From TrEMBL:
[4Fe-4S] cluster binds at C107, C193, C287. GO terms for cellular component: cytosol. One of its GO terms (biological process) is 'de novo' NAD+ biosynthetic process from L-aspartate. Pathway: Cofactor biosynthesis; NAD(+) biosynthesis; quinolinate from iminoaspartate: step 1/1. Its EC number is 2.5.1.72. Catalyzes the condensation of iminoaspartate with dihydroxyacetone phosphate to form quinolinate. This is Quinolinate synthase.
């Protein structure tokens, strides 16, 4: 199945795609009104467009959003991110309605791994435990022992016994990086994020020559050669903190471009340069899955409470265990 076929397969009712927005309405006012009326909370990832970030009740990375979803007492969670993130919110909140503005908002990384494939790999390594990055679908979570995010992966892996055999899925770049910083030799699933794999070492090197005072900061989903020359490697939340607190005034940022919106707010006056990608004809450092969500779709999604995330209860319960394990094991992390 192609990525698009998988995404279309997720659509329970394609009718909502034809819904229209009444002429002349103010989207911001309408979204604010419905948020109150419906006791809804809007959770948004840093990779969303600036207008969606600005209207959200809570903005965060995967770990922060999972925690916010766990704590909310809203009746409806409007998740502005991609499908696996909204699914995580549903796993944590089975009695609440969880909606996603565009159900086609998938993820190349999540789609690289299936529960079935992971089951096969587990058969070959019967003594291994499975640690999965949160960027995976519920069938993969259900086959996992612990979920991690890029904010807590190092901490969680370090807290496991040294001799424990570990399968890490689905991101090979993050897995390789965690192997390096923890001295482990985890078995890695061969998946990747199309956005973070698109950065060009050659073009970034030229950017570093052009901006000799700039520090290169990178997300660990980027490929090893980029990470090797980075001044700082961190999760989305850590990259934001680093830029705000470091003395440098100039940064080349090797992660999804949406983060720059919040970075500019937290580090006003600092020069932020998006790292260049292999293809100079496209905005490859923008995640086109994330950018499928728009203010218009957010409005429709809140008005019609569609498309809704629905899930098989048996899978949900299996997927809940490793997520709870992560939330428990990462309590010490801010
Ligand atoms: S940036 Fe990469 S990992 Fe994140 S949602 Fe997009 S494709 Fe998936």
């Amino acid at each position: 199945m192609t990525l698009l076929e998988k995404a279309i397969d997720r659509l329970p009712d394609k009718g909502y795609l034809n819904l229209e927005i009444p002429k002349g309405i103010n989207l911001v006012e309408e979204i604010n009104r419905m948020r109150k009326e419906k006791n809804a909370i809007i959770l948004a990832h840093y990779y969303q467009t600036g207008d969606i970030q600005d209207i959200s009740d809570f903005l965060g990375d995967s770990l922060q959003l999972a925690r916010a979803a766990e704590k909310t007492d809203a009746d409806m969670i409007v998740f502005c991110g991609v499908h696996f993130m909204a699914e995580t919110a549903k796993i944590l909140n089975p009695t609440k309605k969880v909606v996603l503005p565009d159900l086609l908002a998938g993820c190349s990384l999540a789609d690289s791994c299936s529960g079935e494939g992971l089951r096969e790999l587990k058969k070959k390594h019967p003594n291994a435990i499975v640690v999965s990055y949160i960027n995976c679908d519920s069938s993969v979570k259900a086959e996992s022992d612990i979920i991690v995010t890029s904010s807590n992966a190092e901490h969680i892996i370090n807290s496991l016994p040294k001799e424990q055999e570990i399968i890490f899925a689905p991101d090979r770049n993050l897995g390789r990086y965690i192997n390096q910083v923890t001295g482990r030799n985890m078995i890695l699933w061969d998946g990747a994020c199309i956005v973070h794999e698109a950065f060009s070492l050659e073009r970034i090197a030229q950017q570093m020559l052009d901006h000799p005072k700039a520090k290169l900061i990178a997300h660990p989903e980027a490929q090893k050669p980029v990470l090797q020359v980075a001044h700082y490697i961190g999760s989305t939340a850590n990259l934001l903190n680093y830029v705000a607190n470091d003395d440098s005034q100039e940064f080349i940022v090797a992660t999804e471009e949406g983060i720059l919106h919040e970075m500019r707010k937290r580090a006003p006056g600092k020069i932020l340069i998006p790292a260049l990608t292999i293809d100079d004809t496209c905005n490859c450092s923008e995640c086109h899955f994330m950018k499928l969500n728009t203010m218009a779709k957010l409005y429709l999604c809140m008005k019609y409470e569609l498309p809704e995330i629905l899930m098989d209860e048996e899978i949900r319960l299996k997927a809940l265990r490793p997520i709870n394990k992560m939330l428990e094991m990462s309590k010490a992390i801010k």
